[in-house]
Every structure is written in C-alpha cells, then in structure tokens.
C-alpha cells in the first residue's frame, strides 16, 4: 500500500478504530494528537505509526506534516469553529498534494438549511471543503452518521440505572435511527484504502438500525434483567434532562426537537459485504454499564 494516511481525532472511539484498521491493512498512518505518548501506548508503538503533536487551536504542526500524505481522515467536534477548522485543514492538505479527505460529518447535515445547529455546523464545513476539493481537482467523501449507539452511555445512562426508564419526545412506536461506531469506522477504513476514484465525492448516510422506543426499552429490559419503560417526554422535559449533561444549549435543543426516522442504509452491506450492526447486539455487549 503506497498511500499514507493522516488522521485527526485518532484517540477517540471512532478514530482509534480507524487507525487500528489502517495499521492492520499495512497502511502507513500519521496521527495528529495532543499527547504523542498516549498515542504510542494506544497503538503499541506500531512501526507504521507516526505521531504529530498539536491541536485545533494552532495548526502549524499539522500544516508542516501533511505533505506526503495521499489521504486524510478528518474528525472535529468543535461545533462553533468546525467550518473554520475543517476548511483550514482541507486547504493545507489539498495544497500539499493530498488527494482524498474522508470527513466525519453528520446525518443532520441533510436537514433543510438552518433548521438544526449540529447539522448546520457540519453542512457549512462540508460545503467549504467540497468547494476546495473542486478547486484542486481532488476528492471529499462525507460520512453522515445518525444517532450513535454510544449516546446511551451519556444521554440515558442515569435514567436507566436510577429510574429504570428511557425518555425521548417521539411516540413509543415511532421509528428512530441509530448507528454503530464500528460501522462508521469500518466504512471510513474501507474508503481510505480503496481506489480514490471509486468513491469520488460521495456522501454516505450511515444508519445501522431503526427501531421504536418501545423495542429499545425491551432490549434494555432483557439485557439488565429488570423492566425498563419508555416515557414520551415533551421537548421541554427532554431539554431539561440533556442540557445539564451537555452544557450546550444548541445541541441539547437539537436533540430535544429533531426527529430521525429513515430506515437503515445500505452503505455497510454494499461496501463491507456484511450486515449493518444492530442496537440489540450493542446493548448486550455493553449491558454492564446499565446494570
């Protein structure tokens, strides 16, 4: 494999999985991290791994290091500055000769213009990077995942453990989208190691599983061995639960008002030749957190 991949967000859940997949495939990988020693420990000082120290407040080291890399996996969670950070990184990468960026965007970017804070942050970033890709005759692949399975570990953990309940704003039988971080990382690693022209400037929506809140409560009940009920809360009630946890008005507002109800997408079955991951399997694997 002659391509060299530059990775941001490498120490997070998805980033770690992407890096491990790349290294397992024999891909020379550079990680941009605050703590190089932590990265070395996480990835066992792999021979194919290079660490570059830096953060998103000062991109000097990143800009000096991206030359010689063909591909970039880009992940940034700084919503207010996302379009500025991502477009600055994309500009530096394309100008250094990079050919493909795989951007971790959001399913919420598909919502209508200025109807969702999270979606707007990702949409603006995608738009700026896409224009840069066209300008440099290069490629931007956007991955657009829906609600993470792992959201349960912070948004619902206390409710399940202390009150034996789940809460959201939709009808108990309304279909709700969820996505596995494994599916996201596996698709990213696939795109980063397949021919660039195959994926061109695609945007891939990622939904692993769609199921009702009633069914979700049944899955947790089976996993923890006690009855977990679902409460349909008002948006205001849901906001009061989420805002202290997130300490972010805009994101808590979004997650209290936005509905996502599309069926699972076919990206994983087509690209990876396997079924989408299921929330049922994830709950069973992570039930110890909720008991």
TrEMBL record:
A Pfam family hit: NAD_binding_10
Record domain NAD(P)-binding: where: 9-195
Residues of the signal peptide: none
Full protein name: NAD(P)-binding protein
SUPFAM superfamilies: NAD(P)-binding Rossmann-fold domains (SSF51735)
